[in-house]
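Reminder to self: tokens first, then the designed residues, so the page reads top to bottom the way the pipeline ran.
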């Protein structure tokens, strides 16, 4: 093995470590190199004791301050229980070290695995510390260390530094360290612990059986171009009183894997993928992570990911930020599955990109009963900068996963600045934010857009206090869409907004050229009102109902209202799948005119009053409660179920209309004048043609109830005397189609 002169080696080491981000002192006294004698090993390839003088050149064993060199013969140097050893620096470059006990205390840098030859370190007991730098694997492509021993946390086999760096893999090296039992790597005082320090270095630390790694100030895995791995298993623990950085610096790769109840605790920031580095944290099998703030993909082209599964837990007193100030086009990804959980003060996905029109991507995925509890969840936010774009922020939830926002009376923005926000909830997933005002889209401009889509599928649910869809947009193409339910008709997705929904700006200002759509496909929207907000063109704010339900959460004299200064209500269209309005025990009215080809079903106790000129053409069904029409209906078939009330306060129906009343239904005529209809059918039987007052109808002895003003008359134009009831379940208070021959057979 070649042994360069001290000055050349010192120069080489300085350059290499400086590239690895480790600032060295310059030479001699400040460098930490020992000033004692240089003691060289003289033994051959056999196993010999460190403390025996005959194994050293000059028959003199090292003492405090000496520089120890082992670079020939490939010996196995033995340190045993009871040995108390002191020296300065160590350069161990051939053979192996076997330490079964004892104590090694040094004052210089420790290079274990120094140079080109293979070096093995095996510890089954004892303590080895230095007040300087401890490097495991230096300029070696084949360094291994196995450190075992100890029976409790107070009885650990230990390698550590109390004043410098503790490094695994440095100077272009490949180093592998395994910790078993209660063994530990220990970095105290100002020490940084680095796994793979600098370009060309590869370092792996594998932790088993209650082993421990401690860093007083900073733990780095994959640093300044190095490739580092930390594998934690079987109740192993990592504690950093400072920061933890995984994959930091251009070309760096850092991977931390946690399983088997392993735990990692940090009191400083945690950065995963920074400044051109790639970092990954993979947690499973009830492993736990406790920290303050975590950044996934930060600065420059940094790229990071976190995966939690199988009951893994991450508990943060600060924030989780996915994609912060980065220009990386790689998706920064956090995935929770398998009943894993995350708690954090706040969670940000896509937080202030590095440059304008950046294509950075942040993504959060929850599935398989995973949970997040946080003060607020923010998707796409550039609030830390006056310009720039947040790219794409994505949230995907499935498999009974849950996000709970706990912050009270807050406003959370999804899409603040420029970019795209995509949210999809499926299966039984849930977002619970009952005290949160959710604002979708803000601070766009004429040159930059804020777009987004929220889709609730299957039986997913989202609950917020207030919802503002498209507050302030950008160009005319800018748009926000909220889809509740699936066009396939499966599931019962529900959006609950306790204090009302605003489509457009939440003030009456004209700026913000948003196209806003609320689409209810076979899902349910529960709210106190739906309001048309401000904007450049408020006719672009639409509601489409296709097989969906609107459920009221309060009494309302105008459910489809508009802000003061906004001249029109939202445009509500009922598609072929129809619409259901559930008054839910409240009295609700609207002047809005419903349009479309579908029908309208009124459900729930309470009263629904329509006073607009409605142009929808599908069937009107009064399944429960009271349905009042004081405007007009283009619908030509009105079906009223058992126990339900249909009230006409105007000449609301076309002459081609048919009214079908189930046994126990009520028709109330509260208008002046004569209303002509094509047919009046009660419990499957058509009333004869003629003109009838309320008293006249009562006198027929029909099973339905008639009430109202006798000044009102109902004229039935001549039609066949008997009709099959097209909604046979009306008699039971339910509305469903029945074949005509079944009704006729029942009457025979």
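Designed residues (748 positions):
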């Amino acid at each position: 093995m070649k042994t360069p002169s001290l000055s050349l080696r010192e120069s080489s080491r300085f350059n290499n470590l400086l590239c690895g981000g480790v600032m060295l002192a310059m030479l001699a006294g400040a460098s930490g190199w020992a000033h004692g004698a240089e003691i060289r090993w003289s033994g051959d390839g056999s196993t010999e004791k460190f403390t025996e003088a005959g194994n050293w050149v000059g028959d003199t064993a090292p003492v405090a301050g000496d520089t120890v060199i082992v670079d020939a013969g490939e010996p196995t140097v033995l340190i045993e229980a009871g040995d108390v050893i002191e020296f300065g620096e160590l350069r161990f470059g051939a053979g192996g070290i076997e330490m079964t006990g004892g104590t090694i205390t040094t004052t210089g840098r420790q290079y274990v695995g120094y140079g080109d030859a293979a070096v093995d370190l095996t510890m089954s007991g004892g303590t080895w510390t230095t007040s300087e730098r401890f490097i495991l694997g230096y300029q070696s492509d084949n360094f291994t260390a196995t450190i075992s021993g100890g029976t409790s946390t107070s009885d650990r086999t230990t390698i550590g530094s109390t004043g410098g760096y503790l490094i695994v893999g440095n100077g272009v090296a490949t180093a592998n360290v395994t910790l078993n039992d209660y063994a530990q790597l220990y970095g105290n005082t100002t020490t940084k612990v680095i796994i793979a320090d600098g370009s060309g270095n590869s370092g792996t630390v594998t932790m088993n059986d209650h082993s421990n790694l401690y860093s007083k100030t900073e733990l780095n895995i994959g640093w300044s171009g190095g490739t580092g791995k930390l594998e934690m298993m079987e109740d192993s623990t990592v504690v950093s009183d400072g920061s933890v950085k995984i994959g930091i610096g251009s070309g760096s790769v850092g991977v931390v894997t946690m399983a088997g109840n392993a735990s990692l605790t940090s009191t400083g920031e945690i950065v995963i993928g920074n400044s051109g580095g790639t970092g990954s944290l993979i947690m499973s099998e009830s492993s736990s992570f406790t920290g303050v703030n975590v950044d996934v993909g930060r600065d420059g082209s940094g790229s990071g990911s976190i995966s939690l599964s199988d009951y893994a837990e991450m508990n943060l007193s600060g924030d989780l930020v996915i994609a912060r100030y980065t220009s990386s086009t790689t998706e920064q990804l956090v995935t929770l599955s398998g009943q894993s959980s995350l708690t954090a003060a706040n969670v940000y996905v896509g937080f202030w990109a590095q440059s304008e029109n950046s294509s950075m991507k942040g993504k959060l995925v929850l599935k398989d009963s995973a949970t997040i509890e946080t003060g607020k969840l923010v998707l796409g936010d550039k609030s830390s900068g006056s310009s720039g774009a947040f790219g794409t922020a994505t949230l995907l939830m499935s498999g009974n996963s849950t996000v709970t926002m706990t912050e009270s009376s807050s406003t959370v923005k999804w899409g603040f600045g420029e970019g795209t926000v995509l949210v999809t909830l499926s299966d039984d997933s849930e977002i619970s934010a009952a005290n949160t005002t959710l604002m979708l889209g803000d601070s766009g401009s004429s040159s930059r857009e804020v777009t987004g889509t929220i889709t609730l599928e299957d039986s997913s649910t989202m609950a917020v206090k207030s919802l503002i869809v498209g507050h302030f947009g950008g160009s005319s193409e800018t748009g926000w869409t909220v889809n509740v339910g699936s066009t396939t008709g499966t599931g019962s997705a529900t959006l609950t907004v306790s204090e009302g929904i605003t489509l457009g700006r939440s003030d009456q200002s004209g700026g913000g050229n948003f196209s806003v759509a609320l689409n209810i496909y076979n899902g349910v929207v529960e709210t106190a009102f739906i309001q048309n907000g401000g904007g450049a063109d408020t006719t672009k704010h639409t509601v489409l109902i296709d097989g969906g339900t609107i459920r009221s959460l309060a009494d309302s004299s105008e459910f489809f209202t508009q802000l003061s200064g906004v001249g029109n209500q939202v445009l509500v269209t009922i598609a072929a799948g129809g619409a259901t309005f559930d008054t839910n025990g409240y009295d609700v009215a609207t002047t809005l005119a419903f349009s479309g080809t579908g029908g309208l079903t009124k459900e729930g106790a309470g009263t629904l009053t329509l006073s607009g000129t409605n142009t929808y053409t599908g069937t009107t069904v009064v399944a429960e409660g009271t349905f009042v029409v004081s405007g007009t209906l283009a619908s030509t078939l009105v079906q009223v179920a058992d126990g339900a009330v249909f009230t006409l306060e105007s000449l609301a129906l076309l002459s081609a209309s048919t009214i079908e009343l189930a046994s126990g239904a009520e028709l109330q005529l509260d208008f002046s004048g004569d209303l002509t209809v094509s047919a009046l059918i009660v419990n499957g039987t058509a009333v004869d043609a003629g003109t009838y007052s309320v008293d006249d109808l009562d006198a027929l002895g029909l099973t339905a109830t008639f009430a109202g003003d006798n000044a009102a008359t109902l004229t039935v134009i001549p039609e066949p005397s008997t009709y099959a009831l097209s909604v046979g379940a009306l008699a039971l208070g339910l509305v469903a189609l029945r074949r005509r021959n079944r009704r006729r057979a029942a009457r025979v």
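The first strand starts at residue 38 and ends at 40.
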